[in-house]
């Protein structure tokens, strides 16, 4: 199951069916199955509160991923996405909003698969994976 929700904002994902198919195909291409993933779209302030409450971080971020997986190769989790941050990042990086949104969506999925971006080498690896999967949309 793959679901998209909006929390404190009015947001509709562009091309939801195509996006679902792409996310499922991305997981399968990495040897995973989606058991249950919720993407929750929200504001900067909403995600900041989650960041403070659960991660003890006091800064804005574009995404927070909670891994609830219990079985190997079965992805389950909640992925919170700040639409405010995605918009700002798209502007800063001079890319389209939907391109940046898809990058963030796949970024959260990669986290559930065990990929990390905790140092420069891992960040580079993760960015390459994001690029690879973005081409398949």
TrEMBL record:
Q: Which InterPro entries match?
A: MetalPrtase_cat_dom_sf_prd, YbeY, YbeY_CS
Compartment(s):
Cytoplasm
Q: Which UniProt keywords apply?
A: Cytoplasm, Endonuclease, Hydrolase, Metal-binding, Nuclease, Ribosome biogenesis, rRNA processing, Zinc
Which cofactors does this protein require?
Zn(2+)
Q: Has the keyword Cell inner membrane been applied to this entry?
A: no
The record's cofactor note says: Binds 1 zinc ion.
What the entry lists under SUPFAM superfamilies is as follows:
Metalloproteases ('zincins'), catalytic domain
What class does this enzyme belong to in the EC scheme?
hydrolase
Q: Does the keyword DNA repair apply?
A: no
Q: Pfam families, from UniProt? A: YbeY (PF02130)
Output the superkingdom of the source species: Bacteria
Provide the residue positions that the database annotates as binding Zn(2+). Answer: 107, 111, 117
Q: Which GO terms describe its cellular component?
A: cytoplasm
Which family does the entry's similarity section mention? Answer: Belongs to the endoribonuclease YbeY family.
Instruction: Write the protein's name.
Output: Endoribonuclease YbeY
